[in-house]
Design goal:
Elements: H1 10-25, H2 28-49
Helix pairs in contact: 1-2
């Protein structure tokens, strides 16, 4: 997960709980669904927080 965020959204927390329940009860389908949800939430967060790279003008 890398550095991660300090505060999780409600959807992210719900998906993490769903994943944990899938792991505890051995339900691979539920665990896989939750993992996909977590990946989508994290990808959306990274995409939203990514800064554009500034380019320097070439030296004159």
């Amino acid at each position: 997960m890398g550095k991660g965020r300090k505060v999780l959204s409600d959807d992210h927390a719900r998906a993490l709980i769903k994943q944990a329940v899938g792991i505890v009860f051995g339900d691979q389908q539920t665990e896989a669904e939750a993992t996909a949800e977590i990946d989508a939430i994290e990808a959306a967060h990274v995409k939203a927080s990514r800064k554009t790279k500034r380019t320097r003008p070439p030296p004159a």
